[in-house]
């Protein structure tokens, strides 16, 4: 066999292999796309029928759990967490009976290498923190440890990781809100505050910044800090939320922020407020001074 013929056959073999590889990738992409559409349909069904979905879920669970295998794609591994998170959100009490299966899954997935898998798992843990008081309490410390891994990572706020980070911050806030008796809140609440504002997952941003307003409105001591220690950070977060081009808060929350800032102007020592404003970038400082000016107040 001539050398030229051997080279030709090798090139043909490589071409066939590349074509097969491309075909397999397309097939896997199509499978993942179909699975995602199925997840959306199931989420809609759960939202519509709520607890009436449970008998079907009992059968579905046996198909969902194998999707969590390490040999599966990120889309496949997201499917169990997405569907079960919907169940927890729509009918939390009924979903508690599955916690022995899915809570360990969320914990394991919360530090997964894939950011989409992490995001969905951390969202699920946030729902458990909010709705699953009795089953979540024993794992609070472990969840905080796993959240800490996410928010302290050097690349946590890179674009590909930002939504996972935001869901970690949201889950930590829910732990502070619903499980304060189980944590060192004087230590953890400032850590949570320092992570704000969040800007990637806008749904979580709206929730988290609304919760920040609620804590300030009730003069949460551990959020405000001794001698107004954390007021500059709180004002900085509010300024970023108000000045952002993204919708980081609902209109209702933005109005609450404006009212809070005006109340702080009335109650804080003037030196404390002026000091807090110096931490802002010029555009934010101008915006807040405009909000706090008597002319702006008169026209509100």
Kindly list the characteristics that best describe this protein.
300 residues; mainly alpha; repeat; Importin-5; protein transport; cytoplasm; ARM-like
- What is the CA-based Rg, rounded? 24 Å
Order of helices and strands: HHHHHHHHHHHHHHHHH
Q: What would you call the shape?
A: globular
Query: Can you count the helices?
Result: 17
**How helix-rich are the residues, as a percent range?**
over 70%
Number of strands: 0
Give the N-to-C terminal Cα separation. 89 Å
Indicate the proportion of strand residues: under 5%
Mean of the pLDDT scores? 89
Runs with pLDDT <50, length 5+? none
In terms of quaternary structure, the protein is: single chain
The structural class is: mainly alpha
Q: What count of structural domains?
A: 2
Write a compact overview of the structure shown.
It holds the Pfam family HEAT. The protein has 17 helices and no strands.
């Amino acid at each position: 066999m001539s050398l030229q013929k051997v080279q030709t056959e090798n090139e043909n073999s490589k071409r066939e292999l590349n074509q097969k590889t491309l075909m397999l990738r397309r097939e896997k992409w199509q499978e993942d796309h179909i699975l995602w559409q199925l997840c959306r349909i199931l989420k809609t069904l759960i939202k519509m029928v709520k607890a009436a979905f449970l008998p079907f879920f009992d059968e579905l669970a046996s198909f969902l759990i194998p999707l969590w295998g390490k040999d599966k794609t990120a889309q496949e591994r997201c499917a169990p967490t997405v569907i079960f998170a919907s169940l927890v959100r729509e009918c939390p009490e009924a979903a508690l009976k599955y916690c022995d299966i899915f809570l360990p899954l969320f914990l394991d997935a919360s530090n997964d290498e894939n950011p989409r898998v992490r995001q969905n798992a951390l969202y699920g843990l946030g729902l458990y923190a909010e709705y699953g008081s009795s089953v979540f309490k024993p794992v609070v410390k472990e969840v905080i440890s796993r959240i800490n891994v996410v928010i302290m990572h050097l690349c946590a706020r890179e674009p590909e990781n930002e939504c996972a980070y935001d869901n970690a911050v949201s889950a930590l806030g829910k732990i502070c809100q619903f499980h304060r008796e189980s944590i060192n809140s004087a230590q953890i609440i400032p850590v949570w505050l320092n992570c704000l504002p969040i800007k990637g997952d806008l749904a979580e941003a709206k929730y988290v910044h609304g919760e920040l307003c609620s804590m300030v409105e009730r003069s949460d001591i551990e959020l405000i800090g001794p001698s107004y220690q954390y007021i500059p950070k709180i004002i900085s977060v509010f300024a970023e939320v108000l000045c952002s081009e993204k919708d980081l808060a609902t209109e209702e929350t933005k109005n609450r922020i404006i009212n809070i800032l005006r109340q702080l102007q009335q109650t804080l020592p003037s030196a404390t407020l002026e000091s807090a404003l110096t931490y802002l970038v010029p555009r934010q400082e101008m915006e807040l001074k405009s909000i706090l000016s008597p002319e702006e107040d008169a026209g509100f």
